[in-house]
Write a structure and sequence with these properties.
disordered N terminus, 13 helices, single chain, globular, alpha/beta
Length: about 300
Amino acid sequence: MWLNLTMLKQISGIVPIVAATFTDSGSLDEDSFQSLVRHLLGTNVSALTLFGLATEFYKLTDNDRAKMQKLLLTETAHSDSVAGIISITDHSWEVASQRARDAESQGADALMVLPPYFLSPSEDAIFEHLKRVIGSVKIPVIVQYAPVQTGVRISPDSFLKLREALPNADFIKVETQPPGRYITQLVKRSQGKLKALVGYAGVQMPDVLERGAVGIQPGCSCTEVYVELWQLWQTDKTAFQTLHNKFLPHINYWMQGIELIVKTEKVILKKRGIIGSDYCRSPFYALDERELERIDSFLAEFAEWLQ
């Protein structure tokens, strides 16, 4: 029987997805990646996640992944409070389980698992995949539920069944649209055993936190704003709502497309001097002049947090 050991590093609050960094010629930029990770470690986040959609995992070579994983886990190993989370995106459980065990042995504090979706597997096949992969490790696991991006739909009862079978199936990253009602079902039916995280740039942050979500997994270009929102949620709901209302038009625009927000995040990171290039591997979204002006306006408007 697998034992879910209590984590010394708690996953809650802001848990950004770390971007992939490339040179202007499209090769992996390890120096920029290390710079980005070190910057994020100083922003009061609780964890960093690698190989989410915002990492462009679908555009990485195996060698890229290995280098990035080693760099991130080396940095998080030196932190007493920030957990290192590795996302497992392979479609076969045989491959995914091995990758999960490798990440655990390399020092990952937790994993995130994207259920298989290519060629529309059955719900039984998806459940078997999750059971095999999660059961291959002892560290906590986040299941990424992104039906809009993957076309795969999973009922809250299936996640409850998974949690009953595997105590380390602790978290569900809910990316339904809207996510709030699904979170309510998860939390109530599991009596709090399943903890919800939410992505989608935190567009629905007020509603999902009210419904019991324990954290937000946004991109990483303006982490300080998300951390401020999280802290205000604990201390001053009125100030939280005011700041979120100010933030919402920007993230709402950028979340019209994955490639749109990925490119925007990199432009912001480069303008902030955190990474060397905003290069995205093809195919990518090309920002027009008005969209670049929007980024400059955003940086000016939120300069208090983004110096």
